[in-house]
Amino acid sequence: MKKRLTTIAGVAAMALIVTGCTPPGGSSDSAGTGSVLNVGWNEAFRSMNDMTNDGNAVANTIIAYMMNDNFKYYDDELELHDGALGTIEKVSEDPLKVKYTFNEDSNWSDGTPVDAVDLALTWAARSTNFNTVDENNDDAGMVKKNDADTVYFDSTSVGAPLIKDFPEISEDRKSLTFTYSQPFADWETEFGLGAYGSGVPAHIVAKNALGAESSEEGKTSIIEAIKNNDVEALSKISNFWNTGFDFTSMPDNEDLLVHSGPYKITAFEEGQYLTLERDEAYTGPVDPKMDTITVRYNGDPMAMVQAIENGEVDITQPQSTADVLKAAEDIDGVSIIPGEDATFEHVDLTFDNNGPFDPASYGGDEDKALQVRRAFLKTLPRQEIVDRLIKPLNEEAGVRDSFNQAPDSPLYKEIAEGSGISDYDSVDVEGAKKLLDEAGVKEPTVRFLYDNTNARREQIFQLVKESAEKAGFAVEDSGDVNWGTRLGDGTYDASLFGWALTTTGVTESDSYYRKGAQNNYSGYHNPTTAKKLDQMLVSIDPEEQKTLAADIEKQLIDDGFGLPLFQFPSLTIHQDSVKNASTTTLDPSMFWNYWEWEKE
Fold this sequence. Notes:
- With 600 residues, the protein is α+β, with helices and mostly antiparallel strands.
- The chain has helices at 58-67, 116-127, 202-210, 215-227, 231-243, 301-310, 322-329, 366-378, 382-390, 412-419, 429-439, 455-470, 483-486, 510-513, 527-538, 542-558, and strands at residues 36-41, 72-74, 80-82, 86-93, 96-102, 168-169, 175-179, 263-269, 273-278, 292-297, 315-316, 334-349, 445-449, 474-477, 494-500, 562-575, 578-579, 598-599.
- Residues 89-504 form the Solute-binding protein family domain.
- Residues 1-20 form the signal peptide.
């Protein structure tokens, strides 16, 4: 599941050294007029603003990524590169100042320059500094329309709130400098990464929210609203920013299609397909080899394989199962790239619901609750799950041994070896029984939440249930098709779902383990962990970041937070005629190098 981590996103790894390289697609070697590539995907696009809680989904990110230039992007080796939008530079360490400079040829598709106003709006929206309420959602968890006295931007970030002062903007608006109120480890990827670019076009927000009659008037009104903390204007701005860019078919309002990158949307049939074509008005350096990319939607992975076989789809990345792999292998003229994607599966335990893992159930006895948590975790058949369900798809697959480090992170092995997770390498039913006996807890009932429409998760649940009940637990099936809406509601004791990576930033874990944080569904709180998270936010020393990451990981294992299981296997399936296909363990997965795609 990709929540607002985003998002979500994600888990943390050590920041990688930035490599100097030319912007993507800088070659003039194009495939020629009329080249078309059909891409299969499992979920339909629904919003151009993937920075909102609802819009922050891979289905949106992959489209926005191809339509908008960015300051930074990751390759398939998780190396960070300069994008086509401009440059990011740290100009001061004390205080931390970060300067964004837009390229002179960076323009929105309507000819309006992409500039500091767009980025200033992104900061204002993601910082929560201008919100007058902590949340403004309806009973279903969806953002509501703000009234005239309410400002609520439906977005969150770790670093943006640390910027308290209005940024320094150059006279031509082609540069912007943020001053942080304290050091921040991930300053380089806080803005402008991936699909975000500079954010949604500020002048379009002003036109639709404030009635601005020109781009210049719109940009000026956005700046004045932010500078003056104008609640009335910001209320209207946040309303449109939150939901104004949402659409599920070709919109009547063409403003919603304004973009800064090489592709434009030319057709969109709800739930069926979305077509991108080269925008001849594009002024940036990205030179994709395909003239047209049509993304075709179908949530059934076997239907996607059938589409590959029929020649209706050239490349796809469906949910991988043994049946999908076998079906793809039986097709002539098709290549399969096995690997791992951006999501990893994990089991979390609930600390604050008066259930078997909550100290409140034992009169506040922390040690007793900890023993019960550790007992349950000792029964998780992690290796069996991987051997039976994942290795048939990727024979190199292994159990994931870290919450906060991706398996291909340079710190993964060292941090996993020091965390104590090796105590859970094998199922230990007798050890679990002993812990329950020592705690004086008999046959504790564990309500287990998972997506019961997902065949693989149904199989995982059955394996967990069978193993845990051997140790004396009673595992109750709380599977639910609407499992995502129940996260954090206290109606379950253990949960099975996935977290998706969007960055290698070291501060991404903050939202998972801090009390009250948006992605902390477990009610987990440890003052020691919170202190380490505080230190992680401000650390700019790689060695200190490494130590803190190791400390946090070990504390999670010591506290019985839960256990990671495996990295999602991925199958990138494509016709042999498609060249330069690859994938990455970060969102936007196989789309990361769309400009290099070719079709013979």
